[in-house]
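Researcher: Re-running this chain for the archive, since the previous output was lost when a drive failed. Same request as before.
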Amino acid sequence: MSTVAAVARQGLAPRALIPAVIGLAGLGAAAVWTATAWGVGASPDSVKYLAAAQSLLDGHGWTLPFGAVPGAPLTQFPPFYPTVLSVFGILAGTVGDGARWLQAVLLAANAGMVAVYIARMNPFGGFWGPLAGAALIVASPAVMVVHSMAWSEGLFIFLGFAALLLVTEFLETQRPWQLWVAGAFLALVCLTRLAGVAFLMASILALLSGRGTWKAKISRASLVGLAGITPLTAWLASVGLLTGSLANRVFRLHLPGREQLQQAVGTMASWLLVPASWPGPAKLAILALAGVALAALHRLAFRGAASLNATTSARAWAMPGAVRLVWWFLLAYGLVLVAATSFADANIPWDDRLLSPAFIAVVILVAAPFTPAMQRILVIRGERASGLMAASLGLVVAVVVGVSAIRTSAYVARASVDGLGFHLRAWSSSPTLSVARGLPADTLIYSNSPEAIYLLAGKVARPLPRKVDRSVGIPRGEYTSEIDAMAANLMVAGGMVVVFDGVHGSAISLDELRVVLPEATLEVTDDGIILAVPVRGES
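Model: Regenerated structure tokens:
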């Protein structure tokens, strides 16, 4: 057996894997730091996270200082990500800088997590599988987008897959502390995103299918289930008592539509470098072929050893529990997304952000069978076939990593020059925002982007009333009364209506605003309009 063939199958010495993965993780963290040079990427959701973190630091708990009721509790999002943001805000000096550090650390941690997970899944160790997994994570444009924005997905991914890894370790070693720690991680992942129940479901399935008597298995699964779900239930109950609804959602049946399914297919096809301009049926066909190829690779790598010689352990070739756990998570996460779209929010976009945990799972499932597949081909077909397959798989991974890295580099370069989200340089030169910055601190402001006014102008703003509830896609019965209340508030106290062009917000038109605010003075800027409403009786 040649040295070259051995390296192709197993890689370099195992001790070389650690510095290689650390180097890739550091490269990813540096890329996040570079992409956020103008400030961490901020969407409307991001601003709510950042604001809640600042409220924690100011001693006001998990509240939002802006919105329909300034100072109201944070109810739409679970509280753990803002809590971690506040901790990093203390360490970095400001919440914004803390968010940059947190997101960079999370990308590095997730690249390392994937490498560790793949190494743990592989009964033969190996070098290339874990390294390929870490490289795919760091090079991915989807992963970079998620980690360069102040979103909870990076923390969600780390906590969730750490929990799955701990469950796997417990099933192998039966050490109780691993189960307790796994339960703690599952509790935190559910308090990071409601979709954390997918990790909980996968863990319970794994424990129920593990070794031991049914009494022991049910006891372990119940322990983890209670540990994971109890804090989330307590939080949802507190939200329900405060607001009368669960996580600010109205539950109504609205199944995923054609647009969302097309978006999901397009998102997953982009992971395979399929051009966005290709028609949907072609993307779907490519995804189907990729799924069949992945299933075949797993069958080759992990199926029973009936055809192998008697010296090879059938147990060693069986699919590791860690592999099954990732498949179960993918299934559970898909079910959770369908349920959330069908009952809680019809407007959920099935994009890179929403599907990022599924992408991490797919990377693990792609990279994990590399070494066992090579070993099996070596035993069954010989060294030549093993080397050919290793070269083929390596070439595919190298192409995907290379093209993805080019796209990610372009994204990072563009973000470092232009900024991200509300930290785009265009926002800093906005004439409409400049007017908002100059207003007195106690000015009553209504806007279609209260998040931008809070983050960039340091002022508290309330949202303009919405005609349609986007989460369920139906008209809001409260719209008329909210418009009347807004008009009454502005005419009594005076204030401003600030509307930015190109920002998706209230559907109220300028003509409607002029009808309900007839005394308002209109100012048109290059990127919006401002209505100044005097106190009733003032000229």
